[in-house]
Design brief:
This protein is mostly helical. 67% of the residues lie in helices and 0% in strands. Helix 4 packs parallel to helix 7. The N terminus is likely disordered. InterPro entries: DUF5610 (IPR041651). This is DUF5610 domain-containing protein. Pfam families: DUF5610 (PF18433).
C-alpha cells in the first residue's frame, strides 16, 4: 500500500451520521462486515506508515537507542488526537519536534502526559452539562484510550522490525508505566481540587468582644 493511499485512507471519514450504522443491501445482508474491513484497513495503513518512518530512521542510525521512543510519542499523540477529534478537530495536539529534547523514557512520558492532560480545561468548557467529576472521568477515559491505542501500534511496529528487545523493550515498558502513573497523579490532583471547591467555606473564628 502506498503512503499516499495510506494518508487518504486515514483521513477519510463519513460525513453522513447515518453512515455509522450498518446498511442493508437489496438482499437483506448487512454491510457491517465491509465497515469492519474498512476500519481494519485504516489501522493497518497507519501501522505501515509509522513502520516506514521508523525504518528510515533506523536505517540512518540503528544505534540510536532512543529513536523508537520518538515513534512511541508520535503514535501515542496520534491515538489521543483520534479520540479528541470529535471535540477539537484534526490534530488537536501537535507533538513538538524531538530534536534536542529529552527522548528518554521519562522525557517521552512527561510530554505525552503534559500534552494530553493540557486539554482538560477545554474539554470541560465543551461539556457544560456535565459535573466536574463526570467531565474528569470522561476526559481521562478519552485520553487513556487514545494512549493505549498509540502504544499498541508502536509495539506492533517495533516487534515487526525485530527491535523490541533488551534495553529498548525495558524503556518502552517504563514509558508506559510512567504515563499511567502520570495520568493517575493528574486525576487524583483534579479530584482533590473538585473536592476542595465543593467544600463549604469555613467561617472565621469569632473574636472576643471588648468590655
Amino acid at each position: 500500500m502506498s503512503q499516499e493511499n495510506s494518508s487518504s485512507a486515514i483521513g477519510s471519514r463519513p460525513s453522513d451520521p447515518a453512515a455509522d450504522f450498518p446498511r442493508r443491501t437489496t438482499d437483506g445482508s448487512s454491510a457491517t462486515g465491509a465497515a469492519s474491513a474498512s476500519t481494519s484497513s485504516i489501522k493497518q495503513a497507519r501501522i505501515e506508515q509509522n513502520a516506514a518512518i521508523i525504518q528510515m530512521s533506523l536505517d540512518v542510525s540503528i544505534s540510536t537507542k532512543n529513536q523508537p521512543l520518538t515513534l512511541l510519542l508520535k503514535t501515542a499523540i496520534a491515538g489521543i488526537n483520534d479520540q479528541l477529534k470529535p471535540e477539537f478537530g484534526e490534530n488537536a495536539i501537535e507533538a513538538a519536534s524531538a530534536s534536542g529534547q529529552d527522548n528518554s523514557a521519562a522525557g517521552t512520558a512527561g510530554r505525552i502526559v503534559s500534552l494530553s492532560t493540557g486539554f482538560f480545561e477545554a474539554y470541560k468548557a465543551q461539556h457544560p452539562d456535565e459535573s466536574a467529576d463526570e467531565a474528569l472521568t470522561n476526559f481521562m477515559a478519552t485520553i487513556r484510550k487514545g494512549f493505549e491505542t498509540g502504544y499498541g501500534e508502536a509495539q506492533k511496529i517495533l516487534q515487526g522490525l525485530g527491535v523490541l528487545q533488551g534495553d529498548l523493550a525495558s524503556d518502552i515498558e517504563k514509558t508506559y508505566s510512567l504515563v499511567t502513573a502520570g495520568y493517575a497523579d493528574f486525576e487524583a490532583a483534579q479530584r482533590q481540587l473538585i473536592k476542595d471547591a465543593a467544600a463549604p467555606a469555613e467561617s472565621p473564628a469569632p473574636t472576643a468582644s471588648g468590655s
